[in-house]
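Quick log. Single chain, no ligands specified.
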Amino acid sequence: MIKEVIVVEGKDDISAVKAALECEVVSTNGFGYNKELVETLRTLNERRGIIIFTDPDYEGERIRRDLSNKIKNVKHAFLPQGKALKKGDIGVENASKEDIILAISKAHPQKVERSIQFTKEDLIDFGLAGGEDSRKRREFLGEILGIGYSNGKQLLNRLNNFGVTREEFLEAMERIDGDGK
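-> predicted structure:
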């Protein structure tokens, strides 16, 4: 598994990258991202490192420049326009698996073994899934840990793949329960 988190522009990019590589991927949802996403990416960069892999067009380069200015020491993966073009549309989602793998490999990602420290049962036991206020608890947990908001399945992946320790998790849950949330 690739250690760094890959940062792309949209959901279709996430699907294409995940189909090509075993990695975690976060979307900016275009250029309209907020300060919260930038803070999440900073935290992820400190924990795992990030690789910015935006579309090879004006908007993609604009996002790349902006994030690079706000987050230091990130890696970059580049895809030539010709490898990302399909029926006049330019985007990572149009690239072949081979071209995505090659582009990411040129960013020199590190490899790590996948470890499962957290389970679905943990989410249920701590009221993060299946409960009346689970969404609110996940939102607060994501904020405390700096991993952003996610649904239950995404949270489980982030806890296991973003370098969150059991100790950090338990401390965060104590804060949530201590605040009455």
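The longest helix spans residues 35-47.
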